Amino acid sequence: MRRMRGVTKRAHLAVRVRSFLAAAGLAVACASAAPALAQNDKMSPIAAPAQPDAIELGTGALPGATASESWHSQYGSKFARNVTVATLTPFLPDPAKATGTAVIVAPGGGFTTLSMENEGWDVARALAAKGVAAFVLKYRLNQTPPDLAGYEQAMRARFSGAGGPPRGAPGDMMAGIAAPLADARAAFALIRRRAAEWRVNPNRIGMVGFSAGAGLTMATTLNGQDANPAFIGIIYGSLAPVTVPPNAPPLFVALAADDPLFGNAGYGLIDSWRAAKRPVEFHLFEQGGHGFGMYPKTTTSTGWFDEFVRWMAMHDLLKPAA
User: Fold this and answer.
1) Which of 235, 214, 209, 239 is nearest to 103 (CA)?
2) What CATH number is associated with residue 59?
3) Where is the signal peptide, in residue numbers (predicted)?
4) Which of 13, 62, 134, 230 is buried deepest, with most CB atoms within 10 A?
């Protein structure tokens, strides 16, 4: 009976996060970039950039991995693939400006790549400038062909026919998120262990994610066990309804109405948070597409970061913590 209850619980959790993971498309393939960026949409291999401050999270190498980590450029930005060892990179504010608040930043990329610059480092630098300690999570990814041509071919096959990413069975979805979820939990644990060194209040650690990173952020909130984010941001992620825990953190959501993945799928997540009487703020931008991140664009979606910072200030997260 105990085993059956465990199986039922895992199946129920799989259903809760399934929409976040199954529908999370490849951001680099779907991004509605500004015209100047769109002209630079070709993927080109690059050497792995220096990451001297990256800290290995200790979650081990990706089981069964055969392809090694590789990097490419697209839209004038840097992306990582075949990540087999998770790292966390701190971007710390000037101590004179430090608020004590921290944010784990989870880039997107359909769990096959990571938009490390546009949805990672650039976000972290902007947060640090506001006095927030930011930590970019490079989580382990599903393996893809090591060469770019093979990768692009695999992605075309993945998206062809069904009009989107394959949905799979709930058990498959949980298997796909297991490694990134362990990495996210380890990131929270590491920041809390070194909170004094990094001038962080361990009770004011939040998480913001983009696309698939938004799915990881929600999965961490719903099944992160001891992660317990103090607040979360879902940026162009799935808005499928979920079962909201009683202690659910304040939620910030930003989405473009013309997002090809999530713009026409309803707003069940917002309704779920409101029905549970938990704090939620929702920004639906008229235009912006998917994957806008920190790219400079003429659409109002570019203002999502300023709105996120105002929301944090409203929740007293930018006041110096004791």
Assistant:
1) 209
2) 3.40.50.1820
3) 1-38
4) 134
Tell how strand 44-46 and strand 70-74 pair up. Answer: antiparallel
Strands 251-256 and 280-285: parallel
State whether residue 72 is helix, strand or coil: strand
DSSP SS3 for 42: coil
Tokens of 296: 């400079």
Residue 135 placed within a domain: yes
Beta carbons of 93 and 132 less than 8 angstroms apart: yes
Whether pTM > 0.85 for this model: the answer is yes
Q: Domain range holding 115?
A: 2-314
Q: Strands 87-91, 55-56: parallel, antiparallel or unpaired by DSSP?
A: antiparallel
The sign of the torsion formed by the CA atoms of 129, 191, 231, 124 equals positive
* Within-domain flag for 320: no
Q: In the sheet where 280-285 sits, what is the strand order? A: 55-56, 87-91, 133-138, 102-106, 205-210, 232-235, 251-256, 280-285
Terminal-to-terminal C-alpha distance of the chain: 47
At residue 86, what is the residue type? A
Query: Please, are residues 121 and 114 in contact by the beta-carbon 8 Å criterion?
Result: no
Q: What is the DSSP letter of 299?
A: S
Model pLDDT for residues 156-178, shown as the tens digit of each residue: 887 775 444 444 333 334 457 99
Output DSSP code: residue 245.
-
Identify which of 238, 215, 218 has the alpha carbon closest to the alpha carbon of residue 227: 218
pLDDT in tens, 265-304: 999 999 999 999 999 999 999 999 999 999 999 999 999 9
